[in-house]
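[step 3/7] fold_predict: job queued, chain A
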Amino acid sequence: MIMSNRKLNVFLPLLFAITLALGMYLGHKMPGANTGAQTLLFTRPSRAPLQEVMDLLKIKYVDTLQVAQLQEEAIEGLLSHLDPHSIYIPPSNLQSVNEDLEGHFSGIGVEFNIISDTVNVVSVVPGGPSETAGVQSGDKIIKVNDSLVAGNNITGEKIRKLLRGPKNSKVIVSMLRQQKVTPIQIVRGDIPLYSVDASYMVTPEIGYVKISKFAGTTYQEFMDAVRKLSKSGMSKLVIDLRQNPGGYLDAATRIADELLDDNKLIVYTKGKGYPRADYRCEKPGLFEKGGLTILTDEGSASASEILAGAVQEWDRGTLIGRRTFGKGLVQEQFDLSNGGALRLTVARYYLNSGRSIQKSYADGRQAYDDDIMNRFNHGEFVNQDSIHQLDTLKYKTAAGRVVYGGGGITPDIFMPFDTSRFTNVLTAMYSRSTFSNFTYQYYNSHKNEFDQYKNATLFTNQYTVSNEVYNAFKAFAVKDSIPGVASINAHDEKEIKTRLKALLARQKWGYPGFYEALNKDDEMMKKAVEVLNKD
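[step 4/7] structure written:
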């Protein structure tokens, strides 16, 4: 051991010299050695060009920049080259987007509209904070705490921000009622955002359920509705998915499980970094037997198409309406450090047959967005023969029905769109909210007239819009600068009276009353009842 240490001591100076020389040589050869730049012993991980540009802009650019805005625009620029459903959600929008799908938010529990720069309470959530505090339909909101909102160019977004807040927090809302302003203290609470807008018995046997989106609470709402209808004698069911943009995949598959039996495959998903996942029926369903129809149109998308497609492929029911939107992509939401979120497409979904109903986005987002209008322009909304099947997959069900993949789901029974509903005078009335503004004012000044109707069904079956109400509406429309009121034709008059009746029902019974009254003369609903009555 002593001998060995003596030899090492002799060679140490030589080793140090060699190491020093090698270090000087390598240092001379490293990038930046002759440029005056600081040289590091270890190289940094390389940065992406996009990050390099952002860093240079922050440090070197001649003017002060709004860096956060630039970053958001850069993100949106990247996503514009992907599919149309991969989107960036800014921090300012994230809460409202999440609330819509979670099925609730924290607020005071009123529905309002803005007429002549005044916030009017249209309805009060039953059992909610405002009803508990004594707020009534017809009240006008003048102030929220110290913020004057009447006659102050108030917008819907501004009033929502003032009224919403943390659960159990207090807000003082000054209400104008019968020419007297009264401050009312309201304790904010959880307010449900319902996705099953209506459920009622159409006939003694046929029930109706309207699903407006697939949110976190949709499955339970659907179950509650079906149980209620079953107790009322329902043996056949209409599910209305018109203008339903979709939502949570899980909500759609759980509802499908209630309609399909055995271990049937409802849908499966897969992507490049997303292994295949099958969604099958797992338990006995609440409505596996009995007549079933599903109503669809060009606004039925995503989760709506999963439910409708599964029912169609397994011959469980009849689809009635028009070709669906054509969205077969699955998004996952990722939270970002700036408080926003990235909703990124991670997979495609495929129905039991293996068909994907995603329409093409190869021509860019603008062409994708124009697809619905193009369908209308080439006549698909009014003529079944104008539907352009993409034939990416042709599949025959056990009952012999032929279905197609790509570009949405084609219903079994086509129902044309009534283009005559949108004449110039009617379009002006819809765009200026003339219908809702009139019915709000008329109802609140004639409440006693509606007390004779104990429920929405009696109202729907017995109430008729009188000439007195119709003429009052026309006078209101003239004051609202609607052109062409004097030359309204018979078809427009029928449409106006139908809309007025439905909106008056909504004033008293909310959306359940609205849809029950509106569907009374709806052609698609009539066809659904006709089909179910043949079963």
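[step 5/7] annotate
The radius of gyration is 31 Å.
The longest strand covers residues 341-351.
exit 0
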